[in-house]
Amino acid sequence: xxxxxxxxxxxxxxxxxxxxxxxxxxxxxxxxxxxxxxxxxxxxxxxxxxxxxxxxxxxxxxxxxxxxxxxxxxxxxxxxxxxxxxxxxxxxxxxxxxxxxxxxxxxxxxxxxxxxxxxxxxxxxxxxxxxxxxxxxxxxxxxxxxxxxxxxxxxxxxxxxxxxxxxxxxxxxxxxxxxxxxxxxxxxxxxxxxxxxxxxxxxxxxxxxxxxxxxxxxxxxxxxxxxxxxxxxxxxxxxxxxxxxxxxxxxxxxxxxxxxxxxxxxxxxxxxxxxxxxxxxxxxxxxxxxxxxxxxxxxxxxxxxxxxxxxxxxxxxxxxxxxxxxxxxxxxxxxxxxxxxxxxxxxxxxxxxxxxxxxxxxxxxxxxxxxxxxxxxxxxxxxxxxxxxxxxxxxxxxxxxxxxxxxxxxxxxxxxxxxxxxxxxxxxxxxxxxxxxxxxxxxxxxxxxxxxxxxxxxxxxxxxxxxxxxxxxxxxxxxxxxxxxxxxxxxxxxxxxxxxxxxxxxxxxxxxxxxxxxxxxxxxxxxxxxxxxxxxxxxxxxxxxxxxxxxxxx
Length: 554
Description:
Blueprint: E1 6-12, H1 18-34, E2 37-41, E3 49-57, E4 77-84, E5 90-95, E6 108-114, E7 125-130, E8 133-141, E9 144-152, H2 153-157, H3 162-165, H4 175-184, E10 195-197, E11 199-202, E12 210-211, E13 214-215, H5 216-226, E14 230-234, H6 244-251, E15 257-261, H7 279-297, E16 301-305, H8 314-322, E17 327-330, H9 332-338, E18 354-356, E19 359-363, E20 365-366, H10 372-380, E21 387-389, H11 399-409, E22 414-416, H12 419-424, E23 427-432, E24 435-440, E25 444-449, E26 456-460, E27 463-464, E28 473-479, E29 482-484, E30 487-490, E31 493-497, E32 502-510, H13 525-540, H14 546-553
Parallel strand pairs: 1-2, 1-3, 3-4, 4-9, 10-22, 11-14, 11-21, 14-15, 15-16, 16-17, 17-19, 18-27, 20-21, 24-26
Antiparallel strand pairs: 5-6, 5-7, 7-8, 8-9, 12-13, 18-19, 23-24, 25-32, 26-31, 28-29, 28-32, 30-31
């Protein structure tokens, strides 16, 4: 699935169960795809093969001593995965202080997986231990990296979707593998997006300075005091009224409170495959409603969509991209569940971001107590840190948000910003001689060229599921209001010659068939009634007994 041309050979020992083989192959393909590597089962080391993975069963501790692959450096980087039944308890993983581990260096993380009772005895640098037992060892020899990792066999027998393995209580399943793959792919050659974060709430509108348990005034005070920002995903249908005090709080928040789109009418299937027929009629009206609010009240909505109820089809993504939406904030699991016929969606989860139907994806996850591992994992994967919740998640106060902000701020240089800025800063860049390679992870990105000595900027587009044929795609590069000439170099590359130092905007323009000038589509009465009822429910919740509103929240 990668265009890099770099291949990793994957081989299984005969005693590895078929189900484990199938699931591990899918997992490795997804992890490899995220850093530009192609995983080829059964392929011997040849041609452009840059590394080798061998998966074996470990039947005894002594067996570990003989599990390394061929010791000759010309075999390339090598990873040996040793699988053993998970017989122990959930344990604490302790990462070493080795410099290659970056964010993980010296951390002790609680994992929910049951670890094998075995340990590694291979001589090398121990990168991780489980209850003092080495479970990840690496050795560098003449520029070749060889890793041995002990994993639980049961971990991979149950699931083949990559995003299900990349969860807070399962993070050791993938981190050693991904760390080795990134080293093999020379992943550090690419400059990543900055670590970006915001806390998101679905549903709030500007009809009042409160929405359910959320007070905008208290939220803004906490955001300023604890250094975090909040994005409010607002339903366009709610734009019929804006409270002046709420308006003033948003405008004077200096970006601490921001707005994005939460569907069109907030109906359950409006962005699913069932809603694709009506979407070209309804979406333009919803976007015009937002534009009128912006013009009248001086507000700014990020052109980012948070799909209601997680229903988001690939066809809907393409339609919204053609109407000017730049990105979507959605869980990887929601993309898979809405597009189960597309097998490649099972491999999502490890990408820092991705273009799907020309729409950038900003992955998010649920706000809850004890999500420190998930916050750390998002930063490690170079993904934006976007915990999302509802107003009832702060029924007991804003301490949860303060805890999240404190942990995220402790990760280093973190940029708290709105989702629109996140989308525009979400790209990879690499300088190769006098050429600057840019991989946008959103439909529109803002690029800064630091000097005048470049000969060309090469924009590389990977737009799923159309990456093999993007003939209907157009790329526009602007400097200020001036559009610059760029040439299409191949089906997925556009070149800007002789760039100068300064700021550029790169925009991907899909050509999607649809209604060019759609008629006004009326809002169904059922959608309006349901939205009014939902808002009424949310606003009365703080006055109800906890047991009752808890049931409603579910």
